[in-house]
Design brief:
Pathway: Cofactor biosynthesis; riboflavin biosynthesis. With about 260 residues, the chain is an alpha/beta fold. The chain has helices at about 15-20, 55-65, 75-80, 90-100, 120-125, 140-150, 160-170, 185-190; strands spanning about 1-5, 30-35, 70-75, 105-110, 130-135, 150-155, 175-180, 195-205, 225-235, 235-245. The structure holds NADP nicotinamide-adenine-dinucleotide phosphate.
């Protein structure tokens, strides 16, 4: 892998844990990691797997290795086979322990319907119990099943108030948050004023058709401006790290 921006002093393999380190000053930082084809598709045949490659997986694993919580939408859980919890990786074990983090990130599934398989390994075999972020008026029997399966964070009624949920996670010391999509959840997080950073893997292929883009939701009016922070390249993939200049974000910094 090569780092093009910021330009390094020497052409050495970048240390992804350093390149993607969460900012030390923030006690709440939400980054999204998404993959897109060169023509903007976030899905290939309904999934993201066809867009991915070894280089992309390397970044995916590094971002998971740094996070406290992985936020994921229920449709992605249902369609992408998110049946497994995040696994501890030797490579990140020491840094996680030093940072006071458990061996693996916690997965937090966002769902109002709670149409989720609470018997899947994602719930039953997680090293750190999986969190369900939902609403108080979710179907009562499903809510009971969610409580039995792990931690439940109730964030209002109707649709989950994601700013509230993210703030509660940060207050509980789990502020390094990685949103892995899908496009509807990412739109909701951004509209909630909680998206700080977008990590995008641009996959070297054209998909065509009518696939979703990495964000699918209401217009941002005005558009959210981004500042390019990092650019890496490997195997024809481009890996960008953009910071969101979001006046509504209300950054939580150490005080
Ligand atoms: N390219 C990539 O990097 C990437 C990444 C992830 C996924 N994907 C692809 O994207 C597609 C799925 O994405 P998607 O956008 O359709 O779905 P999604 O964002 O994964 O999930 C949407 C679901 O999440 C729950 N949800 C989201 N916001 C909520 C809120 N504020 N309150 C309560 N529940 C909320 C709802 O679940 P309930 O219906 O249970 O209430 C909603 O139906 C798949 O094709 C997947 O392969 C691509």
């Amino acid at each position: 892998m090569r780092q093009l921006i910021p330009r390094p002093n020497r052409d050495v393999e970048p240390d992804l844990a350093v390149v993607y380190a969460y900012p030390g000053h923030a006690r709440r930082w939400v980054r999204a990691n998404m993959v897109s084809s060169a023509d903007g598709a976030a899905q290939a045949e309904g999934k993201s797997a066809g867009l991915s490659g070894e280089a992309d997986k390397k970044v995916f694993r590094a971002l998971r290795g740094l996070a406290d919580v992985i936020l994921v939408g229920a449709t992605t859980v249902r369609t992408e086979g998110y049946r497994q919890p995040a696994v501890p990786r030797e490579q990140y074990a020491r840094a996680r322990a030093a940072a006071g983090q458990p061996p693996a990130a916690t997965i937090a599934v966002v769902s109002a319907s709670l149409d989720l398989d609470f018997d899947a390994p994602l719930y039953r075999e997680a090293v750190v119990p999986t969190i369900t972020i939902t609403v108080g008026d979710a179907p009562p029997d499903r809510l009971e099943a969610a409580h039995a399966a792990g931690e439940v964070l109730i964030a209002g009624t109707g649709r989950a108030d994601l700013a509230f949920a993210i703030d509660r996670l940060a207050e509980s010391g789990r502020g390094r948050i990685l949103c892995e999509g899908g496009p509807h959840l990412l739109a909701a997080v951004a509209h909630a004023g909680r998206l700080d950073e977008l990590c995008l893997a641009l996959s070297p292929q054209l998909i065509g058709g009518h696939a979703m883009r990495v964000i699918d939701g209401r217009l941002f009016e005005p558009p959210l401006p981004l500042a390019l922070h990092t650019l890496l390249v490997e195997d024809g993939f481009l890996f960008t790290r953009h910071l969101v200049a979001n006046p509504r974000a209300g950054h939580a910094t150490d005080s």
